[in-house]
């Protein structure tokens, strides 16, 4: 009788535990001893996680070496992590290479924990660089870089020469960002081109390095041995960046001392040097290391992500000439072929906005965002998320969820137009993204995608007159893989004839951030979400 009662009590306890998941981890693959699921990882991590979510549900756990990962794959749970419990999940698990490249991980805004220093760095970026006033202050510098890009495309068209579209978009983005950061510090066009080229190589190396699997991240106890040499490589890259930043800062300081006057066009570097001289804001220190770390954040975080978004938009429009014709028709009707787009035109270009939103939906700049790390044990969907675990929000999968979007794999900009249905009910498909970006901008009534475009689309439209065939003829996009990516995530690597693609390039140049709002949203996604 006693044994029967004991068994009954054990059975009831098991049922109670089964009915209350708050003390259990989310379900997930069992993995192997010691290494967990590392041997089965797919290089396309977001697609691999999406397949696991289809099996285990919208929240699952996965063991990666000695680290526990928790993956969230639904708008409701993303809101719970990013908005409802944002302070608890605001920590970061800094990768070993990122800690090295970012001056220790506590000097920049990406990896800094929430506190006085993070708030100061956020204010420096959001209020001084990304605010409407800050962007307007360097508008002339953006104009200069945009027109330089157009001159290059005109020259290529006149010579019927090939254009490496991806490289040109990257260089244009880089020039706009660096012009916004330090303005006229680099004097001549030749010097700016040289610095831009050097930065491009550095950013590419850093991106590849940060994306490479690192034993030190999966087994922190082995980090001190740097078994793959990744930290040594990151130290070398950091020193190269350090030398470039030191040269630029030195030029600015010497110019200020010689003239005794601030630059004619104030820029981000000028403000940071002033803040560094003051020592901070009284609540947190601000050093020259912070200056360099923030410059690196902006350059690395805002270039390839933005240029990739532009390139994806081009690829999608190349595949759909009908959509490209609608974009051109809207630009011609609102601005005209022989005029330059001004910011006042932006509210009148809803279809161009919709194209960019749909591009960001299908091809988010960071498919898994920057992973979060709870400071204490948390509960999500009645499951326990232990302190120190790495929490991924799979934006890529959320944006392709058939429960949220109609025909999710199709490129349909119309879904973001009034009456378009699913694209209107979720801003970028994820309410938490909208709320979080607005909170950081201090603009609870604005929308983070308003004014995604700014600048000079119609100036690029003039290039269409020089082109022969319609856009998309003469260029091609490589076949997509099973996850919907073009192979390598790029347009065809063979340079395409400028005359055949000028209309397409002209539209997509207008998307490149001479376009401050595009840059603003991109940086918000990178830094703060």
TrEMBL record:
It holds the Pfam family p450. Residues 476-485 have a biased composition (Basic and acidic residues). One of its GO terms (molecular function) is monooxygenase activity. InterPro entries: Cyt_P450, Cyt_P450_E_grp-I, Cyt_P450_sf. Residues 467-491 are annotated as: Disordered. It comes from the Eukaryota. This is Uncharacterized protein. It comes from Panicum virgatum.
């Amino acid at each position: 009788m006693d044994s029967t009662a004991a068994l009954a009590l054990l059975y009831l306890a098991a049922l109670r535990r089964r009915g209350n998941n708050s003390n259990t981890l989310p379900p997930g693959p069992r993995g192997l001893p010691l290494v967990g699921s590392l041997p089965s990882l797919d290089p396309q991590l977001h697609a691999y996680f999406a397949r696991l979510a289809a099996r285990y549900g919208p929240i699952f756990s996965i063991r990666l070496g000695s680290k526990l990962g928790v993956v969230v794959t639904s708008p409701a749970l993303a809101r719970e992590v990013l908005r409802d419990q944002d302070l608890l999940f605001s920590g970061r698990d800094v990768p070993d290479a990122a800690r090295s490249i970012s001056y220790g991980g506590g000097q920049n805004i990406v990896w800094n924990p929430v506190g006085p220093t993070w708030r100061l760095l956020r204010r420096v970026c959001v209020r001084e660089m990304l605010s409407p006033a800050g962007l307007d202050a360097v508008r002339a510098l953006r104009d200069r870089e945009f027109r330089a890009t157009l001159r290059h495309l005109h020259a290529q068209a006149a010579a019927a020469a090939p254009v490496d579209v991806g490289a040109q978009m990257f260089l244009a983005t880089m020039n706009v960002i660096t012009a916004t950061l330090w303005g006229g510090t680099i004097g001549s066009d030749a010097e700016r081109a040289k610095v831009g080229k050097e930065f491009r190589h550095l950013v590419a190396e850093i991106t590849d390095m940060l994306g490479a699997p690192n034993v030190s991240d999966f087994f922190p106890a082995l980090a001190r041995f740097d078994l793959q040499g990744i930290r040594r490589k990151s130290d070398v890259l950091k020193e190269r960046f350090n030398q470039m930043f030191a040269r630029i800062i030195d030029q600015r300081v010497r110019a200020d001392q010689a003239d005794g006057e601030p630059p004619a066009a104030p820029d981000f570097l000028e403000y940071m040097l002033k803040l560094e001289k003051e020592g901070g804001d009284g609540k947190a220190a601000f050093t020259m290391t912070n200056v360099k770390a923030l410059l690196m954040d902006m350059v690395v975080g805002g270039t390839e992500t933005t240029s990739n978004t532009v390139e994806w938009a081009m690829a999608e429009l190349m595949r759909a000439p009908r959509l490209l014709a609608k974009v051109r028709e809207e630009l011609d009707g609102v601005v005209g072929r022989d005029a330059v787009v001004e910011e006042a035109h932006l509210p009148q270009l809803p279809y161009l906005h919709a194209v960019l939103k749909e591009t960001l939906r299908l091809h988010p700049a960071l498919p898994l965002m920057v992973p979060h790390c709870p400071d204490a044990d948390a509960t999500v969907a009645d499951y326990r998320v232990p302190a120190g675990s790495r929490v991924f929000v799979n934006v890529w999968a959320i944006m392709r969820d058939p429960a949220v979007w109609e025909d999710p794999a199709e490129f349909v900009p119309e879904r973001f137009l009034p009456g378009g249905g699913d694209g209107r009910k979720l801003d970028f498909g994820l309410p938490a993204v909208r709320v979080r970006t607005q909170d950081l901008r201090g603009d609870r009534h604005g929308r983070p995608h308003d004014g995604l475009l700014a600048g000079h689309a119609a100036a690029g439209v003039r290039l269409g007159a020089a082109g022969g065939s319609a856009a998309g003829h003469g260029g091609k996009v490589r076949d997509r893989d099973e996850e919907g990516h073009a192979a390598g995530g790029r347009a065809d690597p063979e340079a395409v004839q400028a005359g055949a693609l000028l209309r397409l390039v002209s539209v997509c140049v207008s998307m490149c951030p001479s376009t401050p709002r595009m840059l603003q949203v991109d940086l918000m996604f990178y830094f703060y979400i």
